[in-house]
Amino acid sequence: MIYLVAGIFIFLGIHSVRLVAPDFRERQIAAHGKGRWRIIYSVVSLAGLALLVWGYGQARMDNVYFYSPPLWLNHVQVLLMLPAMILVITSDLPVGNIKKTLKNPMLIGIKLWALGHLLVNGDLASLLLFGTFLVWAVLVMISTKRRGQTFPEKVNLKGDLVAVLGGIALWVAIIFWLHEWLIGVPVIA
């Protein structure tokens, strides 16, 4: 379980720098340049993600179970992942109606992803992983709202189309291949 906790701490820690230490981030960019900051950020993120995934796999081998969800929640979870994937893809595209309306599609997508996984996983490792991501996304959303965010008046509708089509494609890939390949658990058994 220690590797899972360490992975969560590293991954969400680097993703929380802007939230908890914005001056540190700005000083690093000023001193070393935006490119170097992005490299450090990416390397730390990938290391944290790798440790998190490996730690989650290890923690699931000797796990404690709190509840056993009903089978029908699996269908709800699969359906929740469709808008989650669309929203995650939306966040990296030019501003469209989806991004302009929701302001933080990535955080909303993460919340849907975490909530969906909490519905179908009643074990300690899952509660720790998905619960932490859910709480983190809520806290970052609150912080982002306080800072304010503006978007251009004119939106790019191509971004919305790409997000929807890309989200559907990612959702299908995860259902039929990626989830089992990456996590070791098939979505459809």
Q: Work out the strand percent.
A: under 5%
Give average pLDDT, whole number. 90
Count structural domains: 2
State the separation between the terminal residues, measured CA to CA.
27 Å
Helix content: over 70%
Could you give a short account of the major beta sheet? none
Ranges with pLDDT <50 over ≥5 residues?
Answer: none
Order of helices and strands: HHHHHHHHH
Rg from Cα: 18 Å
Number of helical regions: 9
**What's the shape?**
globular
Say how many strands there are: 0
Query: What structural class do helix, strand and pairing data support?
Result: mainly alpha
SSE arrangement:
Elements: H1 2-14, H2 17-20, H3 22-32, H4 34-61, H5 73-90, H6 97-102, H7 105-120, H8 124-147, H9 157-183
Helix pairs in contact: 1-4, 1-8, 3-4, 4-8, 5-7, 5-9, 7-8
Overall description:
With 189 residues, the protein is mainly alpha-helical. The protein folds into two domains: 1-62; 64-189, no CATH class. It has helices at residues 2-14, 17-20, 22-32, 34-61, 73-90, 97-102, 105-120, 124-147, 157-183. α1 runs parallel beside α8, α4 (34-61) runs antiparallel to α8 (124-147) and α5 (73-90) runs antiparallel to α7. The model has no long low-confidence stretch (mean pLDDT 90).
Short overview:
By secondary structure, the chain is an all-alpha fold. It has nine helices and no strands. The chain is 78% helix and 0% strand.
What keyword list fits this structure?
globular; 9 helices; mainly alpha; single chain
